[in-house]
Specification:
The protein is built from seven helices and 19 strands. Helix 1 crosses helix 3, helix 1 crosses helix 5 and helix 2 packs across helix 3.
C-alpha cells in the first residue's frame, strides 16, 4: 500500500465517521469523481463501515467477557491449517479501513460508557456543606466526609454512597427508594430525615432518625426499622443491630387547685387565690375584708371563682389588665 492510498484510506475513514473537515470531505468527493474504480472503492468502504457501525450499537456485548469465555476452548481446540487466499487489493484495503473504524468506534463506545459510569462526588473539607440532590433531597455533609451517586440519580436510581457523616432530608417521590450505603450497611428511607455517622467509632455505624422511619440493614441481615427519635447501631465486628428507644418526655404533674372556704373571711380568700393563680386581687372597700363565705372550688379558673364570690356576696368584680378588683358595700353582720 502506497503512502497516497494510506492517506485516502485515512480520509475516507474520517469521512464515513463524520469526523472529516469540510476540506477533507471535498478531497474525498473529488477523488471519487476521478475514476469509476475510485467510486467503487469508496462504496466498498461505506458498506464495511455500515456493517461495523451496526455491530457497535449493541450495548449488551462485552468483548472482554466473551474473550475470557471462549479463550480456553480455543487453546484446547485442534489447530487448523488455513489455505492462503488471494484477496483483491481493494478488498484488503477496505478490510484494513474497516478494522480501523471498528477499533475507533470501540474506543469511543468504551470511553462514553466509562464517562457514564463515573459517579458524581460531593465532598466537604473543613466545614459542613449543604447540597441538594437531583431529586430535590437535601444533604448536610459534615467535614471530611463525602457522598457519591451515579448518573441518572432520581430517575433510574436513588442510591447514595456515604463516606463519613451526613444528614439526609429525603424528598418524597414515586419510583426507586432512596437508599444510603455506608460502611457495609444500607439505610432505606420510608419517608424521613435522618443522620448517619460512621466516624465516631470505626467499629459501628450509627443512624438517628429525626422524622419518619428507615430500614437499617446489611446484605446478610434484615436489620431493624427505626422510627422518629430512635437510634440504630450496627456493630461491624459482631454484625448485630441494636436499637436505642426514643426518650419519652414525662408530662408535668397536673396542678390541682381545690379550695374549701367555710366561714372564711374575704381578706384570707383573696390572699389564697392571688397566690394560687399568680394574680393581684384587691378589695376596693377595705371593710369587705370582714365578709365571710362558705363555698368549695376545685380546678375552676380564677374568672369563674371571682364571679361566684361576687354573686354570693352581692359584689361586683372588675378585671383591670391582669388584676381583679372587688367592689361593693360592707357585709351586714
Amino acid at each position: 500500500m502506497t503512502d497516497d492510498s494510506k492517506h485516502i484510506d485515512y480520509l475516507i475513514a474520517r469521512y464515513l465517521s463524520g469526523e472529516a473537515s469540510p476540506e477533507e470531505r471535498s478531497i474525498v468527493e473529488q477523488w471519487c469523481k476521478e475514476s469509476a474504480e475510485n467510486a467503487r472503492y469508496f462504496d466498498g468502504m461505506q458498506q464495511l463501515f455500515e456493517r461495523a457501525a451496526s455491530l457497535e450499537t449493541d450495548p449488551q456485548f462485552d468483548v472482554e467477557a466473551a474473550w475470557l469465555k471462549i479463550a480456553p476452548q480455543i487453546r484446547q481446540s485442534k489447530r487448523i491449517k488455513m489455505q492462503p487466499k488471494r484477496w483483491q487489493p481493494w478488498v484488503a484495503a477496505a478490510a484494513s479501513v474497516a478494522i480501523l473504524i471498528g477499533v475507533w468506534l470501540g474506543f469511543e463506545y468504551r470511553s462514553s460508557v466509562r464517562q457514564d459510569r463515573q459517579p458524581m462526588v460531593i465532598a466537604a473539607t473543613a466545614t459542613t456543606q449543604t447540597t441538594q440532590l437531583p431529586d430535590s433531597s437535601k444533604v448536610e455533609i459534615e467535614p471530611n466526609s463525602k457522598i457519591l451517586y451515579a448518573k441518572g440519580f432520581g430517575k433510574t436510581n436513588r442510591d447514595v454512597t456515604l463516606v463519613g457523616n451526613a444528614t439526609f432530608e429525603v424528598k418524597h417521590q414515586t419510583g426507586p427508594a432512596f437508599t444510603v450505603k455506608a460502611s457495609g450497611t444500607f439505610i432505606r428511607d420510608i419517608g424521613t430525615a435522618f443522620r448517619v455517622e460512621t466516624t465516631k467509632d470505626t467499629t459501628i455505624v450509627e443512624v438517628y432518625v429525626k422524622t419518619g422511619s428507615v430500614v437499617f440493614y446489611t446484605d446478610n441481615n434484615r436489620g431493624i426499622i427505626l422510627k422518629q427519635g430512635e437510634t440504630g447501631v450496627y456493630n461491624k465486628q459482631t454484625k448485630e443491630f441494636t436499637k436505642i428507644e426514643a426518650e419519652k418526655e414525662e408530662a408535668p404533674p397536673a396542678v390541682v387547685r381545690a379550695f374549701n372556704f367555710q366561714g372564711t373571711n374575704l381578706n384570707e380568700v383573696v390572699t389564697l387565690l392571688s397566690k394560687a393563680y399568680n394574680v393581684t386581687i384587691t378589695l376596693e372597700n377595705p371593710k369587705l375584708g370582714s365578709c365571710t363565705i362558705n363555698v368549695r372550688f376545685e380546678n375552676e379558673n380564677i374568672d369563674t371563682i371571682l364571679s361566684i364570690i361576687a354573686e354570693t356576696l352581692n359584689l361586683k368584680v372588675e378585671k383591670r389588665g391582669k388584676s381583679y378588683v372587688l367592689t361593693g358595700e360592707e357585709c351586714s353582720k
